[in-house]
Structure formats: C-alpha cells, structure tokens
UniProtKB/TrEMBL annotation:
Catalyzes the folate-dependent formation of 5-methyl-uridine at position 54 (M-5-U54) in all tRNAs. The gene is trmFO. InterPro entries: FAD/NAD-bd_sf (IPR036188), MnmG-rel (IPR002218), MnmG_N (IPR040131), TrmFO (IPR004417). This is Methylenetetrahydrofolate--tRNA-(uracil-5-)-methyltransferase TrmFO. FAD binds at residues 7-12. It holds the Pfam family GIDA. It is an enzyme of class 2 (transferase). It catalyses: uridine(54) in tRNA + (6R)-5,10-methylene-5,6,7,8-tetrahydrofolate + NADH + H(+) = 5-methyluridine(54) in tRNA + (6S)-5,6,7,8-tetrahydrofolate + NAD(+); uridine(54) in tRNA + (6R)-5,10-methylene-5,6,7,8-tetrahydrofolate + NADPH + H(+) = 5-methyluridine(54) in tRNA + (6S)-5,6,7,8-tetrahydrofolate + NADP(+). Keywords: Cytoplasm, FAD, Flavoprotein, Methyltransferase, NAD, NADP, Transferase, tRNA processing.
Length: 443
C-alpha cells in the first residue's frame, strides 16, 4: 500500500520509518536542497535548526518522560539521537550532523521509502498523506493549506541562539560545571558577570535595535522562546531569574553566589563549539557581537553563528484535526482530499521531541486506519495522547504547546512533592499495558 509523507524533517522522517517498518511503500517528499527554508543550512534530513539539545532525560522531567514513552514505542529518531549523543549533563544533546546522517542512513536502507527531492505545492493527491512540512513550510504549500482549510494564517516568532568557537572563550573568566553538579562530567562552560557588568549588559540589551518584524510577523512572541532582549526589557532581573540565573553554580572568588552567569553548552562531541543557552535573539548581527563581548569570558569570542529570528506557521488544530491528528472528515470531504494526517510543529506541537512524537502517532493511526479500518489511540495517561488532547481541544486563542506535566490527567489530589513521580508511574503502567495488549506490536 502506497502513502505520501510531505517533509523530511523530524516528524516526517519518524513517520516514514514507522510506515515502512509496517509494510507501506512510502513516497517521502523533501524540498531541500532545491528549495531552502530561512533556517535550514543544507539538504540534510531531520535537521535540528537551532539548539542541539532534545532536552532532559530523567522521567521526572516532562521531556524525559516523553522520551521514555517514545523509546517504549520504538521511535527510530530517538535511536539516532542516542547514536549522536554528546556529553551535556543529564540532557539528550547531540552532534547535529551525526544525528542527521544516522537518520539518512536509516531512510536510505529502508527499501520501501522512496525519497523525492521535490517541493509539494498542494494537499491534492490520491495517496493517504501525512503533512509534516514544519513551521517553515514552503509558501506555495502553506498558501494551499490555508486556502483549503481556512482560518487565519498563524505565526509566532522563534529565534536562534549564537554559537561560539571554544578556543576564543577566555577560560580565566569562565569555568566548567553542570548546574547542581549533576552528571558524571562537567559539560557546560559558565561565564559569570558581576553586578556592574550585568547592569551594563542589560541596559545595552534594552536599548539595542532588533531586526524589524515584517507586518505579518507582528504577532505575540512565543513565551517559551523569548529573545533575550525582550526578556531584558521586561525587567532588570528577568535575565538573572531566567537564562542567566546563577543558582547551583557554586560561589565566586569573594565567597558569595555569582551575580549572573551565562551558560554555554557543547554543540559537538569534540567541544569545539558551544552555544549560548537560552540566548535566542533577533538583534542585528553587529549589535549582538558588541553586547555579548561585554561578558569578560567572551571579550574575544568568535561567533560561528549569530542569533536570528524566523516566522513559524501552524494550523488551527482545534478546529481542523481529530485526536489522531487526522483532518476532520467534513474537511477532507469538502476539498476532495485523500485521508490526511498532520504531524510536527505545523500542528502546534512545539519542540523537537514533540515533532518526533506526533510523527510516530500520525503514522501509527494512518497504519491502523488503512490496515484495520479503525484508529488506535494511546491511553489517556500517556504523554502523547495528553499532548494531542490539548492540541485539539476547543481553544479560541490557540498557541503552540510543549509537552508538560500539567497536561497529564490527574486522577487524585497528589501532593506537590510526589506529583511528578506518581504521574510518571501512572503513565508508564498504562503505556506498558497498552503495548502488551498489542502483541505483535508492529500491527
Ligand atoms: P522540520 O524539522 O522543519 O521539517 C519539515 C521539513 O519539511 C523540512 O525539511 C522542510 O524543508 C520540508 N518542507 C517544507 N515545505 C515543503 C514542501 N512544500 N514540500 C516538501 N518539503 C517541504 N524546537 C526545539 O525543541 N528546540 C529548538 O531549539 C528549536 N528551535 C527552532 C528554531 C527555529 C528557527 C524554528 C523555526 C523552530 C525551532 N524549534 C525548536 C521548533 C521545532 O521543534 C522545530 O522546528 C522542528 O524541527 C519541527 O519539526 P518538524 O518535523 O515539524 O519540521
């Protein structure tokens, strides 16, 4: 049976691999390198466009729990992430080139996946389809989606954090340490600022000129990914309580807590590049250099990449999708569309791991629908089902959403301290039972 997947990013590659492993012939369309997006660097599949971290691994963190669930469900992209892992405390941080190469190898060796380096410009077609064209879907496809599916074209801002060459960091003014000394090795470089430097830094950020948003971009900034200059404008101490918080990083030479600290995280295993954690920005390039080199450890920093800002696009999932990420039947019928699922950031599921998770789930439900004539939903206690429940619930002010503990169903009045542990146990039990009742699991 033949199916189509639009987009060779995180969601699309996971979906294609899942479908091929269940016997489908997959026509996978990726427009790069022929047509690039404003953020991707080249034609590689499953490219991580900004941070190289897939965030925490511990099941007591929301992202750790979602990852554990995806591992139980046999995610291919998490296997690739493990192969590409670089040391970074307890987070799953990867070398982005090795990660992409590993996914490309899996796609190339899956005989049932036929990769087309072509832009898809319309939802029309005969094959059951998963649309995973991402937040930077090409204009032609985005226009067709919005023309057919109606609703306002939705955007929010995302911004890329700068990357620094390691040998340009002045280690006389910086030190290696993970926050709270977690993990076996010290993987983060910390760049402290005293009060005077911090005040100057914040003042310059507040006054600095940013890239002027275009009229269609003048929407709210996405709260989970605020540019640093916006944070600085919100209050003098906002950065000190945010990405520059000094807690868990020991004491300065004067025996007192550091006043503020910028953390740098390794970009690659060789640790030749480090990115500024939480320092996404839309300042002009020259201004970024002027301000960031005020930090003593960064006074001679060479920037391998500077921060940038991009438009993101997502559909109105609450109005358009059911809980399996399929277009509502009346929408498919009205536009004579084949069975169509959406996956990845274009659904409003925000984040790398969430993109992989929605790719897995759309593929699972497409497979069940075509093979068995019915959908097969994960249990309500699972992370993925909880995230999707939130995405498709009625919401007049729909905005992208990361997975978080608040989305999991709370059966009892758990005490705050033990809540995460109990929710994680409840999720694990339900997902294990669900998998056990579906042997053999490969449908
Ligand atoms: P993508 O990985 O972008 O994949 C979509 C693919 O579809 C792309 O390869 C694209 O070339 C292709 N495509 C688009 N249109 C067409 C077409 N018409 N025909 C064929 N192919 C097409 N999340 C995080 O967790 N951490 C971050 O640091 C982070 N930073 C981000 C920075 C930016 C600038 C943006 C835009 C998003 C960021 N995100 C981040 C959010 C999100 O997690 C990523 O965008 C993630 O890659 C989404 O996965 P996806 O599979 O939905 O889309």
């Amino acid at each position: 049976m033949q199916v189509r997947v639009i987009g060779g990013g995180l969601a699309g590659c996971e979906a294609a691999l899942q479908l091929a492993s269940r016997g489908f012939e997959v026509e996978l369309y990726e427009m790069r390198p022929n047509r690039m997006t404003p953020a991707h660097r080249d034609g590689s599949l499953a490219q991580l466009v900004c941070s190289n971290s897939l965030k925490g691994m511990e099941p007591t963190s929301a992202h750790g729990l979602l990852k554990r669930e995806l591992r139980m469900l046999g995610s291919f992209l998490l296997q690739s992430a493990d192969e590409a892992r670089v040391p970074a405390g307890e987070s799953l941080t990867v070398n982005r080139e090795i990660f992409s190469r590993s996914v490309e190898k899996a796609i190339a060796s899956a005989e049932r996946i036929h990769l087309h380096r072509e832009e898809v410009t319309s939802l029309d077609g005969d094959l059951p389809t998963i649309v995973a064209a991402g937040p930077l879907a090409s204009d032609a496809l985005a226009d067709d989606i919005f023309a057919k599916l109606g609703g306002e074209r939705l955007h929010f801002f995302d911004a890329i954090a700068p990357v620094i060459e390691t040998d340009s960091i002045d280690m006389d003014h910086a030190f290696y340490m993970n926050r709270w000394e977690k993990g076996d090795s010290a993987d983060f470089i910390n760049c402290p600022l005293d009060k005077e430097t911090y005040d100057e830094f914040v003042c310059r950020l507040r006054e600095a000129e940013s890239v002027e948003p275009r009229p269609f971009e003048k929407k709210e900034l996405f709260e989970g990914c605020l540019p640093v200059e916006e944070m600085a404008r919100r209050g003098e101490n906002t950065l000190r309580f945010g990405p520059m918080r000094p807690v868990g990083l020991g004491l300065g030479n004067n025996g007192h807590k550091w006043y503020a600290v910028i953390q740098l995280r390794a970009e690659n295993k060789e640790k030749t590049l480090f990115n500024m954690v939480g320092f996404q920005t839309r300042l002009h390039y020259g201004t970024q250099k002027e301000i960031f080199t005020l930090v003593p450890a960064l006074k001679n920093a060479r920037f391998a990449r500077l921060g940038a800002m991009h438009r993101n696009t997502f559909i109105e999932s609450p109005k358009l999708l059911d809980e399996t990420l399929r277009l509502k039947s009346e929408v498919e019928t009205a536009h004579h569309l084949p069975p169509t699922w959406f996956a990845g950031q274009i659904t409003g599921a925000e984040g790398y791991t969430e993109a992989i998770a929605t790719g897995w789930y759309a593929a699972w439900n497409l497979a069940n629908t075509l093979l068995h004539g019915k959908t097969d939903e994960l249990p309500p206690e699972s992370c993925i089902r909880s995230l999707l429940h939130q995405l498709v619930s009625p919401n007049e002010d729909f905005q992208p959403m990361n997975f978080n503990f608040g989305l999991l169903p709370h059966k009892q009045d758990y005490k705050k301290k033990e809540k995460k542990k109990l929710l994680a146990e409840q999720e694990e039990l339900a997902v294990r039972e669900w998998i056990a009742s579906r042997r053999p699991f490969a449908t």
